[in-house]
Design brief:
This protein has 139 residues and is of the alpha/beta class. It has one domain: Tetrahydropterin Synthase, Chain A, CATH 3.30.479. The longest helix is centred in the last third of the chain and has 16 residues.
Length: 139
Amino acid sequence: MKIAKEFKWEMSHRLTFHKGPCRNIHGHTYRLLVEIAGEPDENGMVMDYYDLEAIVNPLIMRLDHSFLCDENDQIMINFLRANDFKHYIIPPTTTAENIARYLLDYLLPHFQKYNNIRELMIRFQETEDVYAEISYKFD
């Protein structure tokens, strides 16, 4: 059985390597679909949605209305710090694919304690028609 919950927030970023307009600072209304597959527990739940929100919401709150910056973008990091702007730094460039992988890696340890969960899938949606999807199957 699968359950899912969607999260939504505002965030900006830039792609320093990009030759087009995405090299500039720009923002999106992001959506994150967290889908969990597994066997329902004795109460009939794969996972309580309250617990799912408790895992994901702290990360979303850190990202909401922030600038997502790759760790090599020293120009932006220095500017954001000097002006005390909300930002969040990740190791790779801030492509949808890299952000999806980062989010999965960040969330994965929180779901490993649930013995009934078989798979965790996330869909990171950058725009209405663009997304990156990644999943992890538990042993």
